[in-house]
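Escalation from tier 1.

The customer reports that the assembly of two entities below gives different C-alpha cells on two consecutive runs. Tier 1 could not reproduce it. I'm attaching the input and our single run for tier 2 to review.
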Amino acid sequence: MMFAATCIAILVTMALALSRALLGPTRFDRILAVNMFGTKTVILIAVVGFLTNRPEFLDLALVYALMNFIGVIAVLRFSSGGEMSAAETEEVP
Amino acid sequence: MIFDVLSMICLSLGCFFSLVGGIGLLRLPDFYTRGHAVGVTDTCGAGLVFLGLMFQAPDHMVLIKLIAVIVFLLVTSPISSHAVAKAAWRSGLEPQQVRYLDEEGKA
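Tier 1 run:
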C-alpha cells in the first residue's frame, strides 16, 4: 500500500520533470530535467522491486545509477565545448 | 511494527520532497533556481525513500545493496548538479535579475 503510493508520487514527479525537459528554454534546463528523471527512475525501480517482492531489482537500480551519472557528465562534456566536443579541433602536442 | 511506522514516515517524507522538487523544476523562473530546487530535493528525497526501504529489507544482502545505492546517489547527485550549473555559467548563461521595489516604487 505504502509502496504503491510512493510509486504514484515518483511517477507524477517524473511527468513534471519530463514536461520541463520538453519545455526547457536552454539546453541546460533539459540536461537538468533528464538528470532528475534518471534519479527518479532509480528510485522507481527500487520501489517497484519491493512492491512486487523481488528485491533483486536493486541490482538494476545500481546499474542505472551508474549509467545516469556517466551519461550526464558525457552529455555535458559533449555539448559545452570540452575536450570531447565536436566543434573543437584540439592540437596534439 | 515500529519499523513499519518508521518506514511509512520516511517514504512519505521522500514522496513529499520529490513532488516539491518536481513542482519547483516546472514552476521556478530561472535555470539557477531550478537547479537549486532539483539539487536539494533530489538528494534528500532519494535518501529518505531508500532509508524507508531499508527499514523493510528482508535480509542482509538487500540491506547491503540498498546502502550501496544510497551511498552512490549521495555522492553523484550533488556532483552532477554542480557540473550542470558550472557548464551553464561557463557558457555565459546569466542569472535572471530581479529588482526589488520599496514602498515608494524605487529600485
